[in-house]
């Protein structure tokens, strides 16, 4: 039963990570990472060492009112590897609308994560994904598409 509780806590961590990325809640997102976390986003193209380097990358890339994202992860395969470590694979689907560039990006990938429990809290020790596909479409190709809501627009 305890293993199921730990797996659920890891799921909640991943869901928080995704929510904070999409809502640009950088202080909350920082809590998701171990201080010595590493990342390998986009087939390893964006690899960083340490929570602060990861956060700098995510903020620089995503903290614009003209860039709106959603990320959904599902089908978690989580394995506890010790009482304080775990690994996980997640199917991910994401979309980004970049109003400045005039594009919509849609992708699917598999996250490969490692988790560590410190002071009773699970954190991401390693995260990254390998694409199944990544597609970009110009908003000019769809002239009828209008963005009617943007929570980040002032």
Give an overview of the whole structure:
This protein has 154 residues and is of the alpha+beta class. A hairpin with a 4-residue loop joins strand 3 and strand 4. Helices cover 27% and strands 49% of the residues. The protein has a single domain (2-141), classed as Nuclear Transport Factor 2, Chain: A. The N and C termini lie far apart (47 Å). The protein has helices at residues 2-23, 26-32, 51-62; strands at 33-41, 46-49, 67-80, 85-98, 103-118, 121-138. The protein is elongated. Strands 2-1-6-5-4-3 form a 6-stranded mixed β-sheet.
Describe, in short, the structure shown:
This protein is of the alpha+beta class.
Task: Give a topology summary.
Elements: H1 2-23, H2 26-32, E1 33-41, E2 46-49, H3 51-62, E3 67-80, E4 85-98, E5 103-118, E6 121-138
Parallel strand pairs: 1-6
Antiparallel strand pairs: 1-2, 3-4, 4-5, 5-6
Helix pairs in contact: 1-2
Give me the side-by-side strand order of the main sheet: 2-1-6-5-4-3
What class, by secondary structure content? alpha+beta
Strand content: over 45%
Instruction: Pick out the low-confidence regions.
Output: none
Number of beta-strand segments: 6
Portion in helices: 25-40%
Largest sheet: 6 strands, mixed
Shape: elongated
CATH topology term? Nuclear Transport Factor 2, Chain: A
Assembly type of the shown chains? Answer: single chain
Intertermini distance = 47 Å
* Count of separate structural domains: 1
